[in-house]
Specification:
Shape: elongated
Structural class: mainly alpha
Radius of gyration: 20 Å
Length: 156
């Protein structure tokens, strides 16, 4: 049995009642994903998730470069990690606008892979995240196309 929520987060089906905290969580998730601002994009939702986790990783890359003293002066590792984190934050902020956030995500992955020049240990993590990014881009795009085809078929 399927239950749908109206715009206020209240259940349309009288059997399903959300608590105030559940309603608030649902509405927050919908706002963050941009669901109320037009069609949803699975690809962009997956991209945001991957970039969110990468944000943590690139900060750790910067801290590692600083801690190991791989660069001189040592603070340069913090600046590089922080700079890459800012690129990712910028990509996340622009994820709802056309495909700008996706393009910035690709740039961030290129930069993550380039950190292996300074921190060879980061190559494994960067390759794993890049593979995850590619998978999410392909599958998310496929899911968006399938949803659009299904919606078009419902309208006929």
């Amino acid at each position: 049995m399927s239950h749908h929520l109206n715009n206020d987060g209240a259940a349309e089906d009288p059997e399903l009642q959300l608590s105030p905290s559940e309603t608030m969580a649902h509405n927050s998730a919908m706002r963050i994903s941009g669901a109320r601002r037009g069609p949803q994009s699975t690809q962009k939702a997956l991209a945001s998730i991957v970039l969110g986790f990468e944000l943590i990783v690139v900060v750790l890359f910067g801290l590692t470069m600083f801690g190991l003293g791989t660069l001189e002066p040592r603070e340069l590792g913090l600046y590089l990690g922080g700079g890459l984190a800012l690129v990712i934050i910028f990509g996340l902020a622009l994820m709802r606008r056309e495909n700008i956030g996706i393009v910035i995500g690709w740039i961030a992955h290129g930069l993550m892979l380039a950190t292996a020049i300074l921190l060879p240990m980061s190559l494994i993590v960067s390759l794993l995240f890049t593979a995850l990014w590619i998978y999410c881009m392909v599958k998310g795009s496929q899911m968006d196309r399938d949803r659009a085809a299904w919606i078009a078929a419902q309208g006929e």
